[in-house]
Write a structure and sequence with these properties.
50% strand; 16 strands; 11% helix; disordered N terminus; 2 domains; Immunoglobulin-like; 4-stranded antiparallel sheet; mainly beta; 203 residues
Length: 203
């Protein structure tokens, strides 16, 4: 009887250990986005949508968007909801930063004002969605801040490739946003060291 009880305890402990190991497992999601009817597959945001049983604390380190050579650098940046973004001016002229809405919601419009070279201003993005960055001084400038609900995100390179690191094991919804294309949504299952997905975005 004693040996049987010890065996039951051993099996139970092993199952719990395996369950904990599975829940703490983290892998990566690699993939490529193919853009149809669009100029490029670069600068497309790819992210895991809301995970119902998981919350995310914004990073202490600020993200940075530079204003350099009359452009927003990077052109597209993805941040977790609640992240502070520093807007730096590296040009020898004054720049203004504003966005007329966040995903069409004009109540979330904001104008940060104008500031000279070498200075920066910070803003914390607490509302998920896309802020279209503009400059009142230079109307040819544009950029985007994509605010997402999880910390698992990436932006495609010039070849449409992306990599999301440290994604926990599980089944999720993978979404995309792009300047020219329609948003996409597809299922992804993270179950190994590396999961590969192919995504097509249409204009």
């Amino acid at each position: 009887m004693k040996n049987m009880m010890q065996a039951v305890f051993a099996v139970t402990f092993l199952m719990l250990a395996l369950g904990c190991a599975a829940s703490s497992f983290a892998g990566e999601i690699k993939g490529k986005v193919t853009a149809q009817g669009m100029r490029s597959s670069e600068n497309i945001a790819v992210y895991i949508d809301t995970i119902s049983d998981k919350t995310f604390n914004p990073p202490a380190k600020h993200a940075v968007v530079d204003q350099k050579h009359m452009t927003f650098v990077p052109h597209v940046i993805v941040v977790l909801k609640g992240t502070a973004v520093d807007f730096l001016n590296s040009d020898p002229v004054g720049h203004n930063v504003y966005w007329p809405s966040v995903s069409g919601n004009k109540k979330l419009a904001h104008n940060m004002g104008t500031w000279p070279q070498g200075q920066s201003k910070s803003f914390t993005f607490n509302d998920p969605g896309v802020a279209s960055l503009l400059c009142n001084v230079h109307p040819e400038m544009s950029g985007y801040v994509v605010v997402v609900p999880t910390s698992y995100f990436a932006v495609t390179n010039k070849d449409g490739e992306f990599e999301i690191k440290d994604a926990p094991a599980g089944s999720y919804t993978l979404k995309t946003w792009s300047e020219e294309g329609k948003p996409t949504s597809q299922s992804v299952n993270v179950a190994g060291d590396s999961t590969t997905v192919d995504i097509t975005v249409h204009r």
